[in-house]
Amino acid sequence: MKKIVKYSSLAALGLVAAGVLAACSGGAKKEGEAVSKKEIIVATNASPKPFNYEENGELTGYEIEVVRAIFKDSDKYDVKFEKTEWSGVFAGLDADRYQMAVNNISYTKERAEKYLYAAPTAKNPNVLVVKKDDSSIKSLDDIGGKSTEVVQGTTSAKQLEDYNKQHSDNPTVLNYTRADFQQIMGRLSDGQFDYKIFDKIGVETVIKNQGLDNLKVIELPSDQQPYVYPLLAKGQDELKTFVDKRIQELYKDGTLEKLSKQFFGDTYLPAEADIK
């Protein structure tokens, strides 16, 4: 009986020792074993072309391909795109559902207080678009009493809302819509409203692709750099450092210029000093 007890005790000790060894060996990474990467979800409205759009069911466009280049061969991050409505881009960043967003996003003080701006990736000033046969609108001084279509929450909508506060005696007429920019430009061409303020690249692309030859573009003065930025959720400081560094590298190695010519037909890049 004593022999049996002694044997059982030794066996138990052996099992415990084996378990400890197994636990220790199981917790260690083997050489060459893949380390799990952090998934970065990037939100986009997939509009306007050529910044973000779908082609044959796949997302592409200047900003989409810039993001792919940023995360290419990263040993720390995996990138995934998610399409959502314009308002959903910001709601998702607020809820930490998205870590990053690209959607032809310009700078505003209000956004800078809520989100992190990465280095700019494109230069894209706003322009005023009217019908060629309309001689009544030559600048922003002439939009009082005239009508336009805007998407709520966009920079141009905010600009015109501020305009109306300052010109309450003769405001411009704002028709809010959820239509995409291509549809809005088509309605402008058809005479359903009087003018549209939007970015130069997007305007020129739609006029060319949709054959809207009855529209003309008027340059607008700007008191700030008309740049396009990736936007990151608050708290993503480490990701911002990575993204900024990669944008600088892509600028220097010519990748940004190559993509700009591919999607815009010309070089629309920020000044090098502004991406540092």
Automatic annotation (TrEMBL):
UniProt signal peptide: 1-22
Keywords of the record: Signal
Listed SUPFAM superfamilies: Periplasmic binding protein-like II
Presence of the UniProt keyword DNA repair in the record: no
Segments forming domain Solute-binding protein family 3/N-terminal: 39-267
PROSITE patterns: PROKAR_LIPOPROTEIN
Keyword Signal on entry: yes
Pfam families noted in UniProt: SBP_bac_3
The protein, known as: L-cystine-binding protein TcyA
Lineage: Bacteria, Bacillati, Bacillota, Bacilli, Lactobacillales
